[in-house]
């Protein structure tokens, strides 16, 4: 028997980890709204795949770097909820959308830094804030961090710092939204084979082998390793998991 139709909003759901998360959530019997930045056709394909799993789905355009657009975005979410899902609220927000910029600490530019702030931290902060009126009590926020907030690889000083900020923010969200029964947790992937950051982990054999050798389970992660954990956090099985950082890295850099 399917769970009652809860609804998750997954940002950056047209490809990579976000697509896998959206499909894994649908497989748990939930409906899904995904956002995409520029890849509309890919997003609509994901919607089709979710519908083939027997769930309702919709795709909306969102640029998480532009916090001024969030109010309009949630107006669209509201009308999509009533029109497509026959609901006034959604239950789970998965803050997945993001980019990676690889640059040494010494060479990181202010422009790169500001781009990462706007997308990875400011965007995540204010998207969740603006989502609150449409979020059902008893739901949850899942923020995506990185193993790089625990261990260090050269070239990710700015990126990992933003994710460290997200991990602190998550604790405050859990504390301040607890009165509404809204849980907030972090999922921190290790290195994953996707097109993220130009697909370096996937396409660079030497880097892939290096990461595999530093991972207890002896391989690099795949999107399917992550989506199921995010989906779990959207279920009642995780009802007492709150303010936690769950690293999903196969045991990297132990």
* Percent in helix: 40-55%
| Number of beta strands | 7
Kindly report the CATH topology: Rossmann fold
Total of domains: 1
What is the beta-strand fraction?
Answer: 15-25%
Would you identify the CATH architecture? 3-Layer(aba) Sandwich
Which keywords apply here?
Rossmann fold, 7-stranded parallel beta sheet, single chain, 254 residues, 7 strands
Tell me briefly what this model is.
42% of the residues lie in helices and 17% in strands. The protein has helices spanning 16-27, 40-52, 70-84, 110-131, 157-177, 200-203, 205-213, 223-233, and strands at residues 7-10, 31-36, 57-61, 90-95, 135-144, 183-189, 245-248. Strands 3-2-1-4-5-6-7 form a 7-stranded parallel β-sheet, with helices on both faces.
Give the helices and strands, then pairings.
Elements: E1 7-10, H1 16-27, E2 31-36, H2 40-52, E3 57-61, H3 70-84, E4 90-95, H4 110-131, E5 135-144, H5 157-177, E6 183-189, H6 200-203, H7 205-213, H8 223-233, E7 245-248
Parallel strand pairs: 1-2, 1-4, 2-3, 4-5, 5-6, 6-7
Helix pairs in contact: 1-2, 1-8, 4-5
Verbal overview:
With 254 residues, the chain is of the alpha/beta class. The chain has one domain: 3-Layer(aba) Sandwich (Rossmann fold). The chain is built from 8 helices and 7 strands. It has a 7-stranded parallel beta sheet with strand order 3-2-1-4-5-6-7, sandwiched between helices. Strand 5, helix 5 (157-177) and strand 6 (183-189) form a beta-alpha-beta unit. The longest helix has 22 residues, at 110-131. The model has no long low-confidence stretch (mean pLDDT 95).
């Amino acid at each position: 028997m399917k769970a009652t139709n809860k609804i998750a909003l997954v940002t950056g759901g047209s490809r990579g980890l976000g697509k896998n998360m959206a499909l894994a959530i649908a497989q748990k019997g939930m409906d899904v709204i995904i956002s995409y930045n520029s890849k509309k056709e890919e997003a609509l394909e994901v919607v089709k795949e979710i519908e083939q799993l027997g769930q309702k789905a919709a795709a909306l355009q969102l640029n998480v770097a532009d916090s001024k657009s969030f109010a309009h975005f949630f107006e669209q979410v509201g009308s999509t909820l009533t029109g497509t899902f026959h609901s006034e609220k959604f239950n789970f927000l998965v803050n997945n959308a993001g980019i990676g910029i690889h640059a040494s600490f010494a060479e990181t530019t202010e422009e790169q830094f500001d781009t990462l702030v706007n997308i990875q931290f400011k965007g995540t902060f204010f998207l969740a804030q603006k989502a609150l009126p449409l979020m059902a009590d008893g739901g949850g926020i899942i923020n995506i961090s990185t193993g790089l907030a625990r261990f260090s690889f050269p070239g990710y000083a700015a990126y990992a710092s933003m994710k460290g900020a997200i991990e602190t923010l998550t604790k405050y969200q859990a504390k301040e939204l607890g009165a509404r029964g809204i849980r907030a947790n972090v999922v921190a992937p290790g290195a994953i084979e996707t097109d993220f950051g130009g697909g370096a982990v996937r396409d660079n054999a030497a880097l892939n082998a290096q990461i595999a050798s530093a991972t207890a389970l002896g391989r690099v992660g795949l999107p399917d390793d992550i989506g199921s954990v995010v989906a779990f956090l959207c279920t009642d099985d995780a009802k007492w998991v709150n303010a936690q950082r769950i690293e999903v890295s196969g045991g990297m850099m132990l």
